Amino acid sequence: AGEGSASTPGDGGGPPAPERVLFPPTFSVSEIKNKQRRHFMFLRWKQQQRKEKLALKKKRRKEREALGDKAPPKAVPKTIENQRVYDETTVDPNDEEVAFDEATDEFAPYFNRQTVPKILITTSDRPRGRTVRFCEQLATVIPNSHVYYRRGLALKRIIPQCIARDFTDLIVINEDRKIPNGLVLSHLPDGPTAHFRMSSVRLRKEIKRKGKEPTEHVPEVILNNFTTRLGHSIGRMFAALFPHDPQFIGRQVATFHNQRDYIFFRFHRYIFKSEKKVGIQELGPRFTLKLRSLQKGTFDSKFGEYEWIHKRREMDTSRRKFHL
């Protein structure tokens, strides 16, 4: 064959076999210009990463089984939570100052069983269907709550009417582009008022493997990871929405779980499968809250005195610094 021939020895002079392209070690998937090809190569790379990780995990497990009792202790993985920067306002349950504040704050009558929660749930002006359904489902979660759809009525006029009718709390659901995106919680008659950003709202019909409709039993309340003075106040606000004496026969639980300053709300029913096994069914709705401000007194956007305001550029400089 001549110098320009593409045939190889032993192939009978047929067309050459395609050569296998090897990417250089410094090659990045992001350098691929074709979007579909780039996405395909990224998925292959992720699949390979998972296989290598699983193989390493199996290898380590076999080594630990072979060593038996002589195996070294498992390493604790580093997470943002266990590397959290210490907050000087972290609450000590045995602190006398904290106990005095709890005995004299705005929620003390509730925890002393002197008042029974009565909640008014309202919306922004002219709510759309999704927000209306969310308010209706929220009213089935919080006992003794009433839904009122305001039409152009200012909150400053609603609050005196709520106080006159013995409501203890006011919840306002705001929306943007037909989607609930904010929650204002005001404790009556003297505050405080918390403003949250709301996201990841899921109604009951949107939750997979959901349980049957909730009953009218008073649910239990679980508050997780509200450790600072600010978080303690927010946790007491949520607790004051529910009657103090839950009806355990209903087996319903409302959970406010704080993780990295995001508050995840879930509503479950637990089922005893045996003496040792317990299953749970999510009833819904579910949503996520992010605290934006805490204001003294009732809602006053112009002249209100704020205890805490979330300032992103000043407060979010470290990923390991949390405020709740």
Automatic annotation (TrEMBL):
Its main location: nucleus. Residues 117-300 form the Brix domain. Keywords: Ribosome biogenesis, rRNA processing. Residues 1-23, 49-75 are annotated as: Disordered. This is Ribosome production factor 1. May be required for ribosome biogenesis. InterPro entries: Brix, IMP4/RPF1. It is found in: Nucleus, Nucleolus. GO terms for molecular function: rRNA primary transcript binding. Signal peptide: none annotated. Residues 63-72 have a biased composition (Basic and acidic residues). One of its GO terms (cellular component) is nucleolus. It holds the Pfam family Brix. One of its GO terms (biological process) is maturation of 5.8S rRNA.
